[in-house]
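Response to reviewer comment R2.3. The reviewers asked that we include at least one raw input/output pair. We reproduce the pair for Isocitrate lyase/phosphoenolpyruvate mutase family protein here without editing.
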Amino acid sequence: MTGVETFRALHRRKAPGDPLVLPGPWDAASARVCVEAGFPALATPSAAVAASLGYEDGHTPAKEMFAAVARIVRAVDVPVSADIEGGYGIAPGELVERLLETGAVGCNLEDSEGGVLKDPRAHADWLAEVRHAAADRLFVNARIDTFIRAPGDTDPKQATEQAIERAAVYVAAGADCVYPIGAPVDVLPLLRSGIQGPVNVHGTVAGDPSPTALGELGATRITFGPGLQRETARALHGLAAALR
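Raw output as returned:
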């Protein structure tokens, strides 16, 4: 079984309370720690990788992001999915080839740019081009930003409906999984009932709600964004302060 086949198989939940939990390493050392802890696959978070390279979130040059992903992939023997933000303006065919060169088996692609939601149909067309170029070589996770990019007065119900609508066109375009980032816990059952296929949910490093609870509410897989890296940075700050 290839790496991408193994990764796809991990998304087939044995039970509602048994989601795939993917920690987010930001470099080779943190990736090895995650694997040693027993995780069967990893998902790099762009914000954490950016921080490790000295950039603000969203400002990492594509060349450096791909290089960082490649170092993580080389360091471990489990499947790695890479957060490559909005694709860096790279044409779908080239984007896929550059990602495959890193050894990653999947990618996370977001549907907003500059803090503004993209037109869902246009984004779906772009995802379809990515899917066509990748064929079955990559697992495509389509991030849906309606909860984090909508105006502050947007009703959560409206954001949920928009997320379900976007999910439908993204899945039709070939997305293997959708990620309504920032979705409130209480709307997860509605999202689950309205979305076909795997659903990625953002978890907390503190484990509240627990992965089991999120799985029972509808999560197929759980990722943590830069949470692990930021908790590590806070712990390091405390240690450094104690040494002064």
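Residues 111 and 119 are 8 Å apart (CA to CA). The beta strands are 20-22, 42-44, 80-83, 106-110, 112-113, 116-117, 139-144, 177-180, 200-202, 221-223. Further pairs are available on request from the corresponding author.
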